[in-house]
Amino acid sequence: MEPVTLSDILKIISQKLEGVFNADEIQSLKKLIVESILDIPYHSVFLNPNDEVKPEKLKEFDRVLTDIIAGQPVQYAIGYTHFFDLKIKVNPSVLIPRPETEELVSLVVKENRTKTPTILDIGTGSGCIALALANTIPDSRVTGIDISDDALTLARENAELNGLNVSFIKSDIFNPLALNNLHFDIIVSNPPYVRESEKPLMKSNVLDHEPHLALFVPDEKPLIFYEAIVNFAFNHLNRDGQLYLEINEALGNEVSELLKSNGFNDVRILNDFRDRVRFAVAKSSN
Fold first, then answer.
1. Residue 127 marked ligand-binding
2. Domain tally for the chain?
3. Is 126 part of any known ligand binding site?
4. pLDDT of 43
5. Contact by Cβ (8 Å): 50, 5
6. 185 and 279 share one domain
7. Based on the domain organization, do 145 and 236 belong to the same domain?
8. CB–CB of 142/163 below 8 Å?
9. Which of 37-46, 94-103, 195-204 is least confident?
10. Is 192 annotated as contributing to ligand binding?
């Protein structure tokens, strides 16, 4: 078998992905795949095009490309993504973080960077929100909760990977006994909010690979998680504590009314970078 060079790898990736992705997508995927498998900066490929690729790395390229062509999100195929300057491991037990969720973190950081808050992330998944906040608000004390053991294992791995101190606890927001005696300055959450009837609007690679438990809510109870979070926050936020939520763009008015009717002040419904309703912010009245 003839040796395969870095230059050859780029050609192989292009050939295998052609017809499945457009030219811009292929360029982005090439960079991501090469950097993740070879652990080198992408420009090294062009500086050293004749360097040989080891056989075990060729097998890894083949596996990743096969998975991507089959429809698996590239982040699952390579095993990680980047979020707020952190490397975050992901697998099908957790959602892949979206740009909108980076916006949610940015909002929390912008309004609390100079403080020393205690923060709770509800439904932490991979831990991306909790870890990003711990990294960017240095004197904060951050806790993340989730009902999934697999998600919590991954979140703890991500904390270790990024050298961050975050406490990850198994707890169900519908019965949060593990948090009974705890209070927080900030509560943040990106809970499930996609209604079952909205499934046809979603891409197949999301529906086929990402955890439905973290995505969907019944049409007849679209605010089921928000009701539990708001109830918890009312009893566990410190005086003037802040609640930050990512929400369904179609339910801004309903979330606003939920917050106001439960005694929260300074309720704000904010748009994301696509100018869609995406965030709710409110202050505790306690």
1. yes
2. 2
3. yes
4. 92
5. yes
6. yes
7. yes
8. no
9. 195-204
10. yes
Q: Does residue 275 have a known ligand-binding role?
A: no
Residue 125, classed as helix, strand or coil, is coil
- Rounded mean pLDDT, 213-224: 88
Residue 15 lies in a domain: yes
Stated pTM of the model: 0.91
Interior CA angle at 167 toward 262 and 139, to 5°?
Answer: 85
Residue range(s) defining the domain that contains residue 15: 6-70
Find out whether 193 is annotated in a ligand binding site.
Answer: yes
What the block records as the tokens of 76 is: 């699952």
How many residues belong to the chain? 286
Q: Provide the 3-class DSSP secondary structure of residue 72.
A: coil
The answer to whether 228 and 262 have CB atoms below 8 angstroms apart is no
**Type and span of the H or E element at 271:** strand 265-271
User: How far is the C-alpha of 223 from the C-alpha of 89, rounded, in Å?
Assistant: 29
What CA–CA distances, in Å, run from 46 to 12, 16, 34, 246?
15, 20, 12, 41
Q: How far apart are CA 92 and CA 100, in angstroms?
A: 20
Compute φ and ψ for 134, nearest 5 degrees. -65, -35
Rounded CA gap, 139 and 136, in Å? 9
Q: Are residue 274 and residue 218 in the same domain, yes or no? A: yes
* Residue range 16-27, pLDDT digits in tens: 999 899 999 999
Name the average pLDDT for the chain: 93
Q: Is 163 annotated as a binding residue?
A: no
Sign of the dihedral through C-alpha 190, 269, 81, 114: negative
Rounded to whole angstroms, the Cα distance separating 18 from 152 reads 37
Does 62 share its domain with 142? no
CA dist., res. 44 & res. 35, Å (int)? 10
DSSP 51: P
42 is in an annotated binding site: no
